[in-house]
Amino acid sequence: MAAELDQILEYAETLSAVDTTDIEPTAHAIPLPTPLREDRALPPLDPELAVANAPEREGFAFVVPKVIEGDQEG
Amino acid sequence: MSAPPHPRFEVVIGLEVHTQLRTESKLFSPAPVSYGQPPNHSVHPICLALPGVLPVLNARAVELAIRMALATHCSVHRRSIFARKNYFYPDLPKGYQISQYEDPIATGGWIEVALEDGEHARTQRVGLTRIHMEEDAGKSIHDAAHVADDATHIDLNRAGVPLLEIVSEPDLRSPAEAAAYLRALRQILRYIEVSDADMEKGHFRCDANVSLRRPGDSALGTRTELKNLNSFRFVELALEAEIERQAAILEGGGRVQQATMAFDPATRRTRVLRLKENAEDYRYFPDPDLIPLVLSEEQIERVRASLPELAEHKCVRFQREHGLSAYDARQLTSSRALADFFEQAVAAHGTPKAVANWMLRDLREALSAFDLEIESSRLTPQSLAALMRLVDAGRTTAKSARELLPVLVREGGDPAALVRERGLEAMSDAGVLEAAVAAAIAENAENVARYRSGEEKVLNFLMGQVMRRTGGKASPAVVRELLARKLARETS
Amino acid sequence: MSAAFETLSELAEKLASREVSSVELVGAALARAQATQRTLHAFAGLRPARALAEAAQADTRRRRGEPRSPFDGVPVAIKDNMVQTGEPTTCASRILEGFVSPYTATAVTRLEHAGAVVIGRTNMDEFAMGSSTEHSSSGPTRNPWRLACTPGGSSGGSAAAVAAGIVPAALGSDTGGSIRQPASFCGVVGLKPTYGRVSRWGLVAFASSLDQIGVFTRNAHDAAGLLELISGHDPFDSTSIPEPAPALRSALDGDVSGLVVGLPRECFVAEGLDPGVLTAVREAVAELERAGAKLREISLPHTRFAIATYYLIATAEASSNLARYDGVRYGRRARGARDLTEMYERTRSEGFGEEVKRRILLGTYVLSAGYYDAYYRKAQQVRTLLRGDFERAFAACDVIVTPTSPEVAFELGAKTSDPLAMYLSDIYTVSANLAGVPGLSIPCGLVKGLPVGLQLMGPALGEATLLRVADAFERRTPWHTRRPEPTP
């Protein structure tokens, strides 16, 4: 895996030869106006369906191995 | 709080607040924003990050963000970008949070914070670095009765709920100032109906950054971050504890390490959760599923025009137009509901000072006793005004009216009708009064003599006697007049 | 199995004239799919009971004279990365084993509303990452023209299903050429529309700014009809173009006189290009000239940077899009993990194949602090330059023509040990995704019995022009009517 990744990254280095001074990075290939959604709540998904695919569940909650506090996101 | 928070160091505090926006649906999903639902009863495929789903931005969330930005004097950016903040956590279904990073919707505002300093109230201007929109994560539930020791339950009802992140400049200099800032921020959010900002419901969460430096130093010391502080009191206590901890380190010749800290309210101490050198790289990049948010001048002006009058402005106006004291004005403008109630009552009654007195004393007591907010009181501004007019006209005594107020607050009703029903009409029947006065004079000859020999204060005692006989229903002013007349006549 | 190679339009006519019933057509399609599963393995799964029930309903509607559309009752296939309510979607990955979707992709809903009957989901490279359909958790699909060869990828199953006459049409997805290249390898028409033309709601994301759903058909006319059906604005997709579905079939008048065909010199360099492919493409271009088109040499100077640009952007977006496959809410979870970290690591390590893991690692690296500017941001800047190349080119021509692929179908296993070589086979196709422009591959020849594809690219929203050129070419040449006689 590592060797292939190295090879691909080396290939990617070829871009450094391109002069991109003052060129804007592409945000979107096709410029569009900002789509906005009206603030109207739709009926939620049937809770049975929401957890139907769960590998492990208890009632309607998803169950995972315990989260250690230090892992917690910052 | 005239004493500085630490004798030997200057304290520098910046606060990051996450507040839930008042919308019906989530930021990028049409699932309802709900409270108190069973787990995963308020989700949509988007909230679950099912394969193939895509986000669509909630128009009202944008409007509310602009509103808050304008109310806090920020520059609203015509173009802002949503970015993905990538990290793994079970309550983060996509494995990234949609937030704003390099191009937030607003930057560079400020708010005025009122700091009560004994009798010398002063205001402090606190800068805002930025305001941006982001979605909330779901909930991880560990320590609950129904959850096994080695498991965590995940509820995604909250995942995707719209949040506003408000970051202050490090302009705060003490825990008390920090708490005052939070109160001021919350008041604005409620005033302009952007957020209910209820800390108990988790609508309003605060992280604090704190560092110390020697007085006179311009460079900032190393800061630590206190997370998950869920009441104003905890914010103050946590900051106090952390200041103490950092001071001890510095005075011992050590260096403060950048870290994320947790506060334990039981021990009142802070401890390191995670050192910042192990901090995650979130690999922010613009979300390719979303188009940059571009606002027109018109859109922004429309929101500006719909901004309600803010507390600061109202407070000044109340002092000017209604002749209230600064203190009273501040109390009455502390919430929009209170301010609106006041103005409507004044419109119905006409004497601002009297209305203010009633509201700040008796009404406040009644609300507090029933644990009600003014919005849920059954007393209307018009019925308060009517009650006050009954007293003015002598139809009932002030004492009776004050007894009636809590009833009106809790049950509503027409003051005049209630006065009649409860027999609280001021005694106005001349005959009954005269008889009571005569009887009191007859039974208290000694005191009468004292009065006539110049002890004017005895009148009050005699009045008390008359009031007793009338069961307190006589108008004191009328009784006083009658007594004085009768006593005077008999001397002559 | 007489209906095997008929076009969508032909079948629609037969259904309209009641010459054949939907149940017969759908039944026959299912039978062919089942019969070829061992040899071709075009399908990841079939839904016979539901398909036949839907076919019966279509027949009832026809009997009542109330067909939902001219395509009511026609059998079609969809790629296994488009969700459908109540159906399993695996994206050819172990990590999605057992996942059943509670909602349907917009493009598929539009098919359903027209009455088309989805007989099953076609095989693909895992999460659409690949050019050969060899990276599938259920094994490779084979090319109907030569079973020892790949059908191309990642939509190899859909291409093979149409090429082998199992269904007249199939949906695929194209991120860097995943419709056009398999169309080219399998001798069928493959169309990737303008970015935003077809909703991505319900398409399992690989690279969000590049992915598009498109169609495989036997000819340009069918492609036009099917694209009309599935395209148009969708409020559930923020990147969806706010335009209704275009009218395309009416553009197919066979007239290309005066049309300017641009030939980018960078795409006709002999090195790395199979001489047989070059000859076939040159001959096809000459045919267009005979039909009245004008040829013009143009330049797309940043073509040689397209692959690197593509792989940096695509893998970066993919690394983020695939973060949701964590075993928490759906799909496969590693058994017996003692803590959360182990659960994540093993679930993903066991659930993803090598190529997917490779791209996630690459993508994570590309976005990481310290490298973002040199890799991701740089690539997005080069992308802007590539878009500029196309804008300038389309000022000088109406349609750009190139070979779809530098080669014909390669043998199974020929490139699996050399990922970079596999990536380079996308050299002519990735630019269209980067620029967001539409691209179409049509069969234009055979080299040693294997199909050659001609790629047509047009300006944004220019599908009508591409289809007109393709249709004109079909009126003058027999390639789109050739059928595979598979040899091992």
Jot down its keywords.
heterotrimer, B: 492 residues, alpha+beta, Arc Repressor Mutant, subunit A, 3 domains, nine-stranded mixed beta sheet, 17 strands, elongated, C: 488 residues, alpha/beta, Amidase signature (AS) enzymes, eight-stranded mixed beta sheet, three-stranded mixed beta sheet, 37% helix
Summarize the structure.
Helices cover 22% and strands 12% of the residues of chain A. Chain A is α+β, with helices and mostly antiparallel strands and 74 residues long. Chain C has 15 helices and eleven strands.
Q: Please, could you describe this protein's structure?
A:
The complex is a heterotrimer of chains A (74), B (492) and C (488). With 74 residues, chain A is of the alpha+beta class. Chain A has 2 helices and 3 strands. In chain A, strand 2 and strand 3 form a beta hairpin. The C terminus of chain A is likely disordered. Chain B folds into 3 domains: 292 residues, no CATH class; 113 residues, no CATH class; 62 residues, Orthogonal Bundle (Arc Repressor Mutant, subunit A), CATH 1.10.10.410. Helices cover 39% and strands 20% of the residues of chain B. In chain B, the strands form 4 sheets. In chain B, strands 3-7-8-11-1-12-13-14-15 form a 9-stranded mixed sheet. In chain B, strands 6-5-16 form a 3-stranded antiparallel sheet, with no helix packed on it. Chain B has a two-stranded antiparallel sheet with strand order 4-17. Chain C has a domain of 324 residues: Amidase signature (AS) domain (Amidase signature (AS) enzymes). In chain C, the strands form 2 sheets. An 8-stranded mixed sheet of chain C has the order 4-6-5-10-11-9-7-8, with helices on both faces. Chain C has a 3-stranded mixed sheet with strand order 1-3-2, sandwiched between helices. The longest helix of chain C is centred in the C-terminal third of the chain and has 24 residues. Chain C is 37% helix and 13% strand. Chain C is globular and about 70 Å long. Chains in contact: A-B, A-C, B-C. Chains B and C meet through loops of B and helix 9 of C. Strand 3 of chain A pairs antiparallel with strand 10 of chain B.
Q: How much is the radius of gyration of chain C in Å?
A: 21 Å
How are the strands of the largest sheet of chain B arranged? 3-7-8-11-1-12-13-14-15
Judged by helices, strands and strand pairing, the structural class of chain C is alpha/beta
Distance between the termini of chain C: 22 Å
Q: Work out the helicity level of chain B.
A: 25-40%
Number of helices of chain B: 15
Structural class of chain B: alpha+beta
Q: How are helices and strands ordered from N to C of chain C?
A: HHEHEHEHEHEEHEHEHHHHEHHEEH
Record the strand order, biggest sheet of chain C: 4-6-5-10-11-9-7-8
Poorly predicted runs of chain B are: none
